[in-house]
Amino acid sequence: MAELNDSIELALAAYNGGEGRAARIYRQSGGRGFWDESVYRQFPAETKDYVPMVIAAAWIFLHPRAYGVEFPKVHAQPATLRLARSTTIYELTICLGNAGTR
After folding, report:
1. What separation in angstroms does the CA of 96 have from each of 51, 54, 63, 92?
2. Tens-digit pLDDT profile for residues 29-50
3. How far apart are CA 73 and CA 31, in angstroms?
4. CB of 47 closer than 8 Å to CB of 16
5. What is the predicted pLDDT for the residue at 30?
6. What pTM, to 2 d.p., does this model score?
7. Residues 43, 4: contact at Cβ < 8 Å?
């Protein structure tokens, strides 16, 4: 994030649209922020949608009562699993219900 002037918006754009692309756009813009039109228009549509959606989701998570949102209480406890063989995170996500999406 430091190379993107600690901008959470540009960090999210880098995560979604590519680190190299975000760094290049930031450098070429002279250090302008994500919402500057000259920066914003260079990102793909998916990234232009992704950044505000993540920020909105985070805001609602931090202020749920203001939006009538109530999160269920979760009483999860960490657990240790012993696997019979080596496996990948991808294989574990399938077993845990991720349907194999990456």
Report:
1. 28, 24, 30, 6
2. 999 999 999 999 999 999 999 9
3. 42
4. yes
5. 94
6. 0.70
7. no
Q: Which two tokens stand for residue 50?
A: 């992704």
pLDDT of residue 100: 52
Separation CA 78–CA 33 (nearest Å): 39
| Gap between the Cα atoms of 27 and 6, Å rounded | 14
Instruction: Find out whether 39 and 26 touch, Cβ atoms under 8 Å.
Output: yes
Tell me the pLDDT of the chain averaged across its residues.
Answer: 90
Q: What is the spatial distance between Cα 64 and Cα 70, in angstroms, rounded to a whole number?
A: 6
**φ and ψ at residue 83, rounded to 5 degrees:** -95, 145
